[in-house]
Amino acid sequence: MVPDQPVVIPLNVAELIEDELHHPGLMGLGEALKNFDRRLDSFDDDCGMDAWDHGIDTITARYTAEYRMYAERCTRAAQALAEQIPGPTAEVYIEADTNPNSYWWSGSTITNRHDLGDPLAQQLWHAAHDATPLPNVDVWLGAAYEVTVQ
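User: That's the sequence. What structure does it adopt?
Assistant: Structure tokens below.
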């Protein structure tokens, strides 16, 4: 590897959460919104619809923030791990798709490829993934479910 060429590591956070390969059983945004929708009865009044809208907005905002923070933590982990490698090391960047509505399965966005073609990038991707706690989104789902109608 030439030290002046950056190491670019692709990361799609929605794929990491939703793809059964890495973490079976985790809930992506779409599933979280469906579960929220199922928990609420039909609303006939504006107050109930406002509460429903607020719940949807709360869940979406939480996923968006958590996915972005995960990519930032993963980037810092990859950079720190690269600094531990003896000899000259290139700068490390994570090219991330942090959109919780990502269409990662369509091939039209960044994906978590299984073979990056660069052994250092591959090593750093796996090491950063292992060192970085996953986005913490379900803890906040309970709060969103408890939207009360007054």
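Residues 7-145 form one domain.
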